[in-house]
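Hi everyone, sorry if this is the wrong subforum. Our group has a chain we'd like a structural model of before ordering constructs, and none of us has done structure prediction before. Sequence below.
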Amino acid sequence: MKSSRRSPRKIIWVVLPIALILVAAWYILGLKARPLKRTEMIMGTVVEITVIPPNQEAIEEAFDAIKEVDQLMSTYKPESEVSILNRQGQNHVSLQTSRIIQEAIKFSEATNGAFDITCRPLINLWKRAKKEEKIPTLKEIEEARSLVSYKKIILQGDLVKFQEPGMQIDLGGIAKGWAVDKAIQALKRRGVRAALVNAGGDLFALGKRGLWKKWDVGIQNPRDEEKILSTIEVSHRGVATSGDYRRYFTLEGRRFSHIVDPRTGETVEDVPMSVTVVAPDATTADALATGIFVLGPKEGMRLIESLPGIEGLIVSEGMQMDTSSGWSKF
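Answer:
Right subforum, don't worry. Here is the predicted structure as tokens:
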């Protein structure tokens, strides 16, 4: 009598094609579904969220997550936790604000101070210089720089305070990436598997747009806003670009970027023109892009190569493009 039991191997070969068909169908339906895209102005920039397939509730929660970050950390909102901290020199803050400050300190250490959220006194100095059309004196720069040091931030539970009167922080080099990651977390909680959250160039690509298609991310030419320098394909990665091409000004024949070197007090001029970082999350990409822009092409690329899971593109004068060893996979 023949046994009616099927062999395990036959069962596997029957089940496997079915599973593949189901997975393919899920992706194909997602690909054919019209993406739901919404745009809002938050954190001083255009924030765009794209979800496939459409999920209105998920997008709402994602935008709420970004707005919460803005309410807590904006230096333009007088009642934000960061604004109160800057006015008073200390403040009891939320877990979220405390955590991002801790993350910022970590990146300050990784970049040897090239990234430093206590650089706000220098930022204010150069904003005033732009307004008054007058380059700051060496004495003014040194006075502002004396108030800059991430090592002088004291964290005691939920209490954040400064060692020196007059110190202030600015989370502009990390907060957008942090907000993007918070939005992605909100989307995941709603079961979203494919989405793109873009906050003024700081973004995270969740999943894929279809069965094989990753998300296309264009990198702007730093000297021609109408042109794309390069396009990369990413999935489950954060991407951020820092450059001197959007917010810059000219004084006495010199071009000044909006990014200040916390170590010297001077703005970063011409070298490099832009830095793009791809990382496992948008927070890391955002902070490192800023820090590496300050470090410059050689030191910045050495840092990229030393960090696992990090890849980068550095564009310098003459449109010289230096890429990390793993950049080609994008």
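For your construct planning: The chain has one domain: 35-329. The two ends are 58 Å apart (CA to CA).
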